[in-house]
Design brief:
Belongs to the flavin oxidoreductase frp family. The chain is built from twelve helices and four strands. With 247 residues, it is of the alpha+beta class. A four-stranded antiparallel β-sheet has the order 1-2-4-3, with helices on both faces. Helix 2 packs across helix 6. The longest helix is centred in the middle third of the chain and has 24 residues.
């Protein structure tokens, strides 16, 4: 195991930060590392918005489900899939030809590009002694949040990311057994599902310890609760209104 793999294997989501700033140099280093992530056809279809203004972070925290650490972290990054830039800069070179920036494929490209860049940023931040936590809650009230940030057509916030100096050392959440996710030469239905029985025992013990005995649900139970309730059904009409996936 080398230093890079050790860093990756020790990842934890940080939800409490010290009252210590992330410097401009650190932020630029983090975003520079993000920009070196793989990107489909060099499209680079993402934009990251760094929220540092206290009032803005407070409002973003409210829109993201009243998650206090969004307001408390020194920098809150909003990672956006961005096809607006592509549409604008290609208008003249296209010379009147039809543009297809609104395809489902390009929506996938932009979303994946944002995710790849963000994960590079996460590792860069952790290598600098900082901590991060992803915030999917930016999609809770996505229309209001997009208006607050002035996001134009063909731009949507994929997720947020709190960045700062950790003020706690949380336990590490166990992952699925490798046989469940690593298949050779084709998909194995049985291999995908069978190891979950073992994982359910592991996760129940983890939750019991983490909550001081208040909760001991299995992973399958937690996932059933998640699938049993519709989540963010406003996303499709919102994306339609933003000009995504018309083709």
């Amino acid at each position: 195991m080398n230093d890079t793999i050790s860093l990756l294997m020790n990842h934890r989501s940080i939800r409490k930060f010290k009252d210590q700033p992330v410097t401009e140099e650190q932020l630029r280093t983090i975003v520079s590392a993000a920009q070196m992530a793989s990107t489909s056809s060099n499209v680079q279809a993402y934009t990251v918005i760094a929220a540092t203004d206290p009032e803005l972070k407070k409002r973003l925290a409210e829109l993201a489900g009243n998650q206090a650490y969004v307001e408390q972290c020194p920098v809150f990054l909003v990672w956006c899939a961005d096809l607006y830039r592509l549409k604008q800069v290609t208008a003249e070179p296209l010379q009147g030809r039809e543009s297809h920036e609104d395809t489902t494929e390009n929506f996938i490209v932009a979303t994946v590009d944002a995710a790849l860049a963000a994960q590079n940023a996460a590792i860069a931040a952790e290598s600098l002694g900082l901590g991060i936590v992803y915030i999917g809650g930016v999609r809770n009230r996505i229309a209001e949040l997009s208006e607050l940030l002035g996001l134009p057509e063909l731009v949507y916030p994929v997720f947020g990311m709190c960045v700062g100096v950790p003020d706690h050392e949380p336990g590490q959440r166990p992952r699925l057994p490798m046989p469940s996710v690593l298949h050779y030469n084709g998909y194995s239905n049985e291999q995908s599902v069978a190891p979950v029985r073992e994982y359910d025992v592991t996760m129940a013990a983890y939750l019991k310890e983490r909550t001081g005995g208040k909760r001991d649900a299995t992973w399958s139970q937690v996932m059933a609760d998640r699938l049993g309730e519709p989540i963010r059904l406003h996303m499709k009409p919102f994306l339609d209104g933003k000009g995504f996936m018309k083709k």
